[in-house]
Structures are given as structure tokens and as C-alpha cells.
Amino acid sequence: LLIVGVIGAAFVAFQWSGPTFDPESLKGARVLVTGASAGIGEQMAYHLAGFGAQVVITARREKVLQQVAEKCQVLGPQKALYIAADMANPSDPERVVKFAVDKLGGLDYLVLNHIGPSPFTMWDGDVEHTRWLMQVNFLSYLQMAKTALPTLKQSKGSIVVVSSLLGKMSSPFVAPYTSTKFALNGFFGTLQHELAMQRSNVSITICILGLIDTDSAMEKVRGMTNIQAWPASEAALHIITSGATQQTESYYPWFWYYVCLIRDWFPYFRDMSLRNLYKY
Length: 280
Ligand code: NDP
Hints:
The protein has 280 residues and is α/β, with parallel strands linked by helices. It has helices spanning 2-16, 39-50, 62-75, 92-104, 127-155, 175-197, 215-221, 232-244, 256-261, 267-276; strands at 30-34, 54-59, 80-84, 109-112, 158-164, 203-209, 249-252. NADPH dihydro-nicotinamide-adenine-dinucleotide phosphate binds at residues 35-41, 59-61, 64, 85-88, 113-116, 136, 162, 164, 209, 211-212, 214, 216-217.
């Protein structure tokens, strides 16, 4: 009864938390989205353009970015600019933020979403890959946040960090990737505290996603698991609305919130279930 009561209270608190999303609030908003040539980032660019936001998108492949920007321009009358950059290059994160601030005349949202490719296999002892992935998936986020913070303070803006359930729970086959997501949750969780203690007007939203049906994710897990994947366009909309309503943490799909809430209650069964999700 106690357990049911706790879960019920948490459910009600979760469902009622935060303001409702007003699409008008994004009209003219200046948004930088990373990893926007494909997957969830690309879908976010389309939603934002539809809401009338001004977007700068970035990723490595310039030709693909150009196509995404052109589609944004059709969906919304506002600016849709792009800049090619490789987040493995330590000088690119700052260069991208400066480009966006310069072209948009400031910034309201910094949406950190990109990830570098990483194998879906048991760890083979490759430390160098994890070091490289840390730069792409983690350190570049810090560099961009640092560069954007003074501008975001002026605009009462937001940083939106796209994270994963794999930043909350360890799981097989993703050691380097999961490390970068745990690092993100830890770092930006701390920054949330510190900005609140300084009474800063900059908000940070951390989005925790389950499996999403992007091409890259589906390619990795095909034949390995039957976990249900959720639509990238819905995930993208969820991230945007969570950022626009300044939630500190959000979950898509929603039920992963409850899984995270009770994940340490029965560790043996949790770990057995996690391993049984995969064919090996
Ligand atoms: P994708 O692999 O589909 O897209 C990754 C994006 O990052 C692409 O635009 C890619 O473009 C860009 N990118 C890759 N390497 C670099 C680099 N070195 N420098 C700059 N940009 C780079 O990812 P998803 O859409 O699947 O995931 C988006 C976010 O959602 C990630 O943060 C991921 O961790 C999170 N997430 C996804 C889940 C899923 O199941 N899909 C589950 C949980 C979380 P290009 O190749 O042109 O550089």
C-alpha cells in the first residue's frame, strides 16, 4: 500500500508539474540546435521552424545541413542558417556559438543534442575511443554552454541538454556512450544547482530519452533487442516543449520517470531484466 501510495503521489506531482506550453513563446526565438543534420536534431529544426523560431543548425555534413535548412525555410518564414563543424575539434564549439550569436543577434535557446558514432558492442578495451567520444558528447557541450552563458543571461535564455536513460542506468554494450551521458547528467545537474543558488535567470533542462527510432539507433540495435522504439518527431517535440516550459528534467516516453524512480529498489531483478533485454 505504501509503495502504491508513493508511486501515485509521484504520478500526480509529475503530471501537474510545470506550466503548459505556449507555441507563441517560440515565435522569433533565437535557437541553436546541434546534431541537426539527422535524427532527433533534424526533427527539432523542423518543429522550431514551424513555430516561427529563428534557427541555426550545426553538424559535420554541410550539404545535408543545407537541405535541412532549406526545408526549415519552407516550414517557417524565419531565418534558418547552418554552419558545419566537428565537435571533436576543440575550437569548433566556441566558433559555432559565436556564429549563432552573431547571425541571430543573441540567443534564447542552446539545444545540445549531437553525439559522435559509437559501437554497440561489449567494451574491447579501447580507451582512445572513449577519450574522443568524451570530447564530442560531453566536453563540447561544456564549451558551448560556457560560450553561450553571457548571452543567455542577457536574454533570460535556456540550455537544453539531450540526455538518455543510459545516463541514469548502466546497460550492456554501450560503455563509452553511457559514460558520456552520465557525465552530462552530473555536470548539468550541478550547474542547475549553482545557477539557482546565484539566482541566475538562465534555465537548464535535461531531457532523458528512451529508445527513439532514428536511423542510427535502429541500425545499432537491430537483431539485438525487441525494446520498443518511439518516434523521433515526438521526441523532438517533447524536448522543445520541455525547454520552452523550463522544466529541470523531463522524460520521454513519460513512464521511464517511474522506472528511474524505483530503479534501486530491487537491484538484482533490475540487472537481470536489463541483461535479458538483449539477445547475446
Ligand atoms: P543521430 O546519430 O541520428 O544524429 C547525430 C547527429 O550528431 C547528426 O546530426 C550528426 O551529423 C551529428 N554529429 C555526429 N558526430 C558529430 C561531430 N563529431 N561533430 C558534430 N556533430 C556530429 O542521433 P539521434 O538523433 O539518435 O540522437 C540525438 C540525441 O538523442 C543524442 O544526444 C542521443 O544521445 C539522444 N538519445 C537518442 C536515443 C535514440 O534511441 N536515438 C535514445 C536516448 C537518447 P553529422 O554526421 O552530419 O555530423
